[in-house]
Amino acid sequence: MTDTPPPATAAGYDPGLYNADLAPVPAERRDWSWVNMATVWMGMVHNIVVYEAASGLMALGLSAWECLEVVAVAYMVLFLAMWFNARAGTRYGIPFCVLIRSAFGPYGAQLPVVLRGFCAIFWFSVQAYAAAQAVDAVLSTLSPAWASMTPSLLGMQARMWLAMAMVWALHAWIASHGVHRIRNFELVAGPLVIIVGLLATIWGLRVGHGLGPLFAQPSHLHGAAFWSTFAMGVTGMIGMWATLTVNIPDLSRFVRSERDQVVGQAIGLPITALVFTPMGIITTSATIILFGHPIWNPVDLLLALNHPVVTVLGGATLVLATLSVNVVANIMPACYDLVNLMPRRLDFNRASRLVLVLGVFFMPWLWFNEAAGIYRVLDLISGLLGPVTGIMLADFYIVRRQVLDVPALYRHGGRYDGRNGWNVPALAAFAAGGAVASAGHVVPGLAGLNTVAWFVGVAIGAGLYLALSPRRDAHPAEDAATLSNA
């Protein structure tokens, strides 16, 4: 079952570049309102990684209030980047893997698409395993028989294999029947997790008799040290969402208007983040009073509280939060990326099942023993995706002047073909921007670049692409006709 049936004018499209799931969403089928866009973002923003992010910033010496300032700056930058990059999806109804062909060419586009798909499946695997840990914690607390299932296979105990099977099955159920079911799931999951977070915050305020000790902790950084840490925190926050910055058209293609897209993202992204972050800080403040030390990991907190009802409800909330971020931020873009690679063989539903299988082969239980390795790999990928964001923005707003010949995106040999399907300016800008943005990870003397890697990648990617590309498209008359029919 697909969400976007092929238009009647599909004749002449290259079958290696087109199928029903990659086709432009007709205007009459773009039925997401600002409420849908906001709840989708709510479902993504309140996840375990974001919850724990404040602990990392405070461990570096920032105060709780300065953490909120970092969150405000980072998510405002993300909102602006996603607002502008989402516009092409809303206007033309096309996904990221099709839109990127305008800048990279149909063959060259496969490079950022594969990179984005790899990162999506990797993140899905890691986050789904985190949810499986929550399931295991709950069932181990409630059932001695469950806790006794200790035989191991491939480095993981039997009960964790069963917990993973449960979590994978939940992901499969939500992802089945395509984007329509995902939208409806997020309409419930996003607000529900916020409500549970509010209950936890009220508990934290009662235990702490106010905001708690973490909000009373002063900043330990000043001058250059403060600004360096502040910049690193902003870049780190952006890095968590650098992947979605490039593929936001996968979501915005279903939104009915530009206004709905902007309002929904404004509510769901910076506003939700500014509400969710202090929730985590206040709840953690309560753990200092109760246990004498901060507990930032929600699973550890549930085990420490040791209350069956709280454990079950809290564990269910953690699983729900992980599902809500995984299906939209990871499974959905990975499906489109896989369909783009094999449009003759895959549709959205088949691709979603393939994502689940590939997620197991990433063996996340082994990566969890090398957490530093996870973030090192993902930081490198984020550094490479910064230039992709810059190239996409420069191409759509300056080179193409916000006008695309949509049918040409589904054919070889047209205006977006570059040199035999490879657009050299985009490839050169991507390579140069990615190399500079990631240089700090391999050259110790350039480690300072890590604090602004995403910004450097965006700037170099956009600047070099514009320097190597013509300033306007070659067929403005045809583009005008395309726009009038879009």
TrEMBL record:
<keyword id="KW-0812">Transmembrane</keyword>
<dbReference type="GO" id="GO:0005886">
    <property type="term" value="C:plasma membrane"/>
</dbReference>
<comment type="similarity">
    <text>Belongs to the purine-cytosine permease (2.A.39) family.</text>
</comment>
<feature type="transmembrane region" description="Helical">
    <location>
        <begin position="121"/>
        <end position="146"/>
    </location>
</feature>
<keyword id="KW-0472">Membrane</keyword>
<dbReference type="GO" id="GO:0015205">
    <property type="term" value="F:nucleobase transmembrane transporter activity"/>
</dbReference>
<feature type="transmembrane region" description="Helical">
    <location>
        <begin position="446"/>
        <end position="468"/>
    </location>
</feature>
<dbReference type="InterPro" id="IPR045225">
    <property type="entry name" value="Uracil/uridine/allantoin_perm"/>
</dbReference>
<feature type="transmembrane region" description="Helical">
    <location>
        <begin position="380"/>
        <end position="399"/>
    </location>
</feature>
<feature type="transmembrane region" description="Helical">
    <location>
        <begin position="420"/>
        <end position="440"/>
    </location>
</feature>
<dbReference type="Pfam" id="PF02133">
    <property type="entry name" value="Transp_cyt_pur"/>
</dbReference>
<feature type="transmembrane region" description="Helical">
    <location>
        <begin position="225"/>
        <end position="246"/>
    </location>
</feature>
<feature type="transmembrane region" description="Helical">
    <location>
        <begin position="267"/>
        <end position="292"/>
    </location>
</feature>
<protein>
    <submittedName>
        <fullName>Putative allantoin permease</fullName>
    </submittedName>
</protein>
<feature type="transmembrane region" description="Helical">
    <location>
        <begin position="187"/>
        <end position="205"/>
    </location>
</feature>
<keyword id="KW-1133">Transmembrane helix</keyword>
<feature type="transmembrane region" description="Helical">
    <location>
        <begin position="158"/>
        <end position="175"/>
    </location>
</feature>
<feature type="transmembrane region" description="Helical">
    <location>
        <begin position="351"/>
        <end position="368"/>
    </location>
</feature>
<feature type="transmembrane region" description="Helical">
    <location>
        <begin position="67"/>
        <end position="86"/>
    </location>
</feature>
<dbReference type="InterPro" id="IPR001248">
    <property type="entry name" value="Pur-cyt_permease"/>
</dbReference>
<feature type="transmembrane region" description="Helical">
    <location>
        <begin position="312"/>
        <end position="339"/>
    </location>
</feature>
